[in-house]
Amino acid sequence: MDRHGNRWRERDRYHRREERNQNRDRRRHHHDYELDHRRPRGGHGEERSTFRESHRRNRSRSPTDINTLHFGYDASLYPALEPIANFETVAVQPVSHQAPEFNQVSPRNGDKIYPISRPDKGGSLAARHVRLLVNNFPITFNSETIIRHYNVDIKPEMPARHSHPMRLSKATLSQIKEKLFSDNRGQFPLSMTAYDGEKNIFSAIPLPCGTYDVKIFSGEENEDSFRCVITLVNEFNLCKLKDYLAGNLLSIPRDILQGLDVVMKENPVRHMLSIGRQFYPLEYHEEDDLRCGVAAFRGFQHSLKLTSQGLALSLDYSVMAFRKRMPVIDFLKENIRGFSINQFARYRREVEQVLEGVKVTVTHRRTKQKYTVVGLTNDTTRSISFSCESSEGKMKKINLVNYFWEKYKIEIKYKDIPCLDFSKNNKKNYMPMEFCVLVEGQRYPKENLDRDAAFMLKKLSLPPPHIRKKYIYDTIRSNNGPCGDVGQNFGIKVDLNMAKVVGRVIGPPELKLATSNGKVIKIEVDKEKCHWNLMGKSVIDGKPIERWVIVDFSRSDRNQLNYKLFIQKLISRFRNLGIRMEEPLFYQDATMSMFSNVARLTELLEDVNDRACRVGRRRPQFLLCVMSRRDIGYKNLKWICETRVGLVTQCCLSMQANKANDQYLANLALKINAKLGGSNVELFNRFPHIDSKGHVMFLGADVNHPTSRDTRSPSFAAIVGTVNWPAANRYAARVRPQLHRQERIINIGEMCLELVETYAHLNRVRPGKLILFRDGVSESQFDMVLNEELQDLKKAFYKKDYKPTITIVVAQKRHQTRLFPERDIDGGPTGNVPPGTVVDTRVVHPLEFDFYLCSHYGSLGTSKPTHYHVLWDEHKFSSDDLEKLIYSLCFTFARCTKPVSLVTPVYYADLVAYRGRLYHEAVMEHSPSSMAYSSSSMASSSFPSIGSNEDQFCKLHADVENVMFFI
Fold it and tell me: Does domain 682-813+868-954 fall into CATH 3.40.630.30?
């Protein structure tokens, strides 16, 4: 029996013993490779994240009473509880779609939990069926093929300075590898190998192991020497992958799939620009020129996936803005409006801004070396001199202009402008601007594009389905795509036709609204777009607005608010929607300049709050803040109101407010009513499967990370939870700082428990059922969610003698799967799949419980479904029940009259996590010194010791933490 008292059969013991032997051998040979291939957060890492080592375990039965111990718990966390004995376990084949009643647990690995298996063969609920194409291309492979994995260790022959190892860039490593192969063509055939750009080479044939010396040019006459040590790590037989797909192997052969992933990327790596996991051509289409020295490059990204049909290649279209390969001076003429080389001093500051950090190469000599611009020289080109060694071996001082003439017989044309400064490690290096050319493959931040270029880039990024599908087909069939000779040499063949699947369209739920006299009515949404309108209707529960204030920051601007007209129309629209709104307590004028002055802004808001308390004898319900334009100081306003003063705010632009059309005012009304605790729309019928006795709480969790360029700022975790039942459309929120780029929510148990206690305070009962939707994790991080976050959650609950049943569902938007109607009749007017389209067969995981749901109407570009993956389920959902529940939740988003593309709890959690980021930015700009210690500490200290240090800056005020301030 296992540690929980569960019996297993002799046959199961045999399988476990065989599996242990396989895994032990694999770990011994591949430890280094695993370390080199860890992936960061996000669905874009799907090509490797789908390859985690998961095992299909035995089914078990467990009582569903929430007061008993649930199957899959960690006994070490709850020593006071007695384990449940005498559970029957039944061995099953991995390919079976009959589900265990609860999640699978591995007795051999310390009760490690694995994702739940699919409970059925897919759902059957449908208003109609549609025939779809999915951008998955089935892969066949020769099961007799052996892939050899080699480790390549590259180090410079010169000893490292200060005993610190020299870190080589990927570009240098690839250059060294190419030189090694070109010098030894007979021993290292290029077409039979694939290189991951770092330490791993995969080969279809044996390669000679040993030490090789490689020399590459690093400058005009400089040559660097490197020592390459090649060793065989392991040999992979593709028959193991075949066995897994046939159901004869319990664990995914992850090492094989990682090797195949590198093989499938080898061909585009050799012919295209590689940016992260995406590939772009070396040249752009003329019609994609964005001007300003920038162009849009149309590329793709792809990954390997395990599906019910077998191994598949998923490929999708991608667009990115790059600086064009062009002379630096030409780039300045395009990028800086009005730039003139003859008036350089006038534009010097702008030139430094656009060129700082840019990589260039030189044209006056043959070289592949790249230089990074750190600035401009203080002196002009004709004034720069430097010391160099003469032919007699003596040091002499020479003018830069004369040097180029003597050395290269080149006369410098622009002598009265500065040079580019490439200085590095205290070694000066200046270069005349006219000899410098921008290197290809340099991303251009889209936020720096002008309005026209940004619009054009967005248009290219959102092609309609028929254009996107054509580009995907063109890519998969091109010579530069993933289907090159290298893959074929490894015995891999890709079907050049998209996978076909039959999808189901779920009918939309019926909704509740109210009439003008407050009577509840049932409405049916539009069948095609799933929209509904509020004309002649009222919200289901409008909160009376008696105490509110207008703070007009546009008063001194040209686009100032027409106060009287706006108030008249606003109050009228609110009342038409069933929300009784009184005149504001008072009008407060202000200026936009206050947004950048935190002290003045804080004083203003505190004064407004105090005055409102005197006039209305209670706190104002909300402030309506009118702005003449968008301003980065918006984050200061939110931080002060929501963490310091305790005020709910609603911002609007004066230009839109003056137009005051019905749709705009209705949108304001929906947001304000939700912020004040009202209810805009509700489901007419209860949620499926969980409509029995007891309260249910929906939770959403997400983590917001800093940008890749930010190496110090903390991440922010947010959790939201419903506080009403059965409507389940009002939420409370919690946000906490985390370690930098830490995906695991460190204190998820504490945060969820706070929300549960809030629910209990409002409803006088704790919810007996919790359904948690987790955003932002890739499949490689499922283990973390189940064996760390879930355990922390249960531990926090058990300490309070609280034992709810729990379901955890991951919602992924960062994936590459797209759905295309096979026929016109299967799609809508825009060519997209209809809202409510579900796919849960053929292209989903071969064993686990997942599905794709396109819940929104695709009016722009190509609709992207959300991928839902069930990790833990104590409610025993069927496919139909869970798909219908999630689709219904998408209709409860408070600030619009249509279903959203992402389940509402996750959508809200994303908004709250971003709010945490805004708080942090506001504090850093206001007082960088006060936050410096906190930010640096987060990188080196344990979280508990520094969490409270920053917690004080983002802790929500008690008056707003339990309302939907984030809408």
Answer: no
